[in-house]
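To whoever is on call:

I kicked off a structure prediction for a single chain this morning and the downstream step that reads the tokens threw a length-mismatch warning. I double-checked the sequence; it's 279 residues and nothing unusual in it as far as I can see. Pasting both halves so you can look.
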Amino acid sequence: MPITQYDPTTPARRGMTSQDLSDITTRKSIKSLVKSKKQNAGRNNTGRITVRHRGGGVKRHYRLVDHKLAPGLKVTVEEIEYDPNRSARIARVKDQNGLYHYILADTSIEKGKTIVSGDEAPIESSNRIALSKIPIGTQIYAIEIHPGKGAQMVRAAGTKAQLMAKEGEYAQVRLPSGEVRRFRLEATAAIGVVGNIQHQNIKIGSAGRNRRKSIRPGVRGVAMNAVDHPHGGGDGGRHGTGKPPVTPWGQLTLGYRTRRRKDVSKLIIKSRHDAKRNK
């Protein structure tokens, strides 16, 4: 899937590229699988901003994607659609009961393809199978963390993981970050690579394009007043040299680890940080 270039009619357009939508077969979604999505501008249920630099942007409707695809379902791909809420494409499929579902589209999905879910499914691309039935070395995506909850990992465009080994009740999977993690063997995953692999090569080109994506500008701390940021203040010279960079609230940043989930750490065999050091 190539990247679409723009004619350099303006300075912003000169370096701007966009995704190619030629693989999308329809622009009309199913109303029963779409719901409205309210813009919260990075605020939580109490009104406090928990994610900065969010707000505005175009209105988007949320597609109800089926990340489980219950065992025993045999679905047929009818359409491939654009989803404004994720980088990957979604496929509209119809099961043997006449019900419609949205699923993540991988690189091999096309109209008319049949996808099977369950342990009896053949080892083919797009089929959803338990890790215990997938051969070692297979590329997978949309992996369940908790069996039966639905896929939570490896869902972004162009991502893939690899099943490395099986030991006891766990399977060892190498994630896109390089981290090797253990998953329960009864957890399910889809075979293949998530589609829209050229998404990472898109160049935004202009600030207004980010604003339409609900991304507001970020301001450097050194450009602020001392009351607003630990890096702020001064008469224009360099102040605070030799001190590590911090967030607006004084928390160390740029590499400082803040992860506290001790129960997850025991499932990690090889850290993603170790993978980066070995490169």
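Update from on-call: the warning came from a stale cache, not from the record. Cleared it. Sanity check on the structure: The domain at 219-279 is CATH 4.10.950.10 (Ribosomal protein L2; domain 3).
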